[in-house]
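Hello forum,

I keep getting stuck at the same step: I have a sequence, I want structure tokens, and every attempt I make locally crashes halfway through. Rather than fight my setup again tonight, could one of you with a working pipeline run this one for me? It's a single chain of 203 residues.
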Amino acid sequence: SADTQMMTMIWSYIIVAIAMFTLVQIITQQYVRQRAELLKMTEELELVAHHDQLTGLYNRRYMMDTLEKWMPMLDKDFVVVYIDLDDFKNINDSYGFVFGDTVLVEFAKILQENIKDVGFASRYGGQEFVAMIDKANKEEVLAIIDKIREEYNDFSAKAKNAKFTFSAGVLVDDKTLDLDEILATADDKLHQAKRAGKNQVII
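Reply #2:
Ran it on my machine without issues. Output:
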């Protein structure tokens, strides 16, 4: 009958509508899930691109890019600290490369913990680290470095009953140098500290 045909058509439309709604829901859920996965992958790629994989500190490239961006915006002098762990090859030779990696990780933690509120740190390469500290005078910077040295000494004493040290070159930028000159000058001061007998800070 006509009524039966009408009801059949109505139910057919309802079934199709339900199927379409379900399909849209499935597609939407897949899109949301895929987008979340893509965002997670992007974040992971950015983490790898910006951070040193061993220590978790910013890597050299990100540090350089960040300093380039920050320098024109800073209205006060800022400090660059160039650090090299003394006799790191001897540490590797004496205790093995696995422990050598542990030393790098622990020093990175100590460095980051002591400057996280006033700047940022990066692993520049090998056993070298560069820290940028904003709005600090020489006395404040030396106090931070002394705290880092003390904690690094404590770590080495507990880990190997030894005394690990580092040397540092410190440059207070006066806005007249470009980034390459800043790093080169800090590196030169670091080498002065090495030549002075290591375990030294040259400003």
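The chain has a mean pLDDT of 86. If your local run keeps crashing, start a new thread with the error log.
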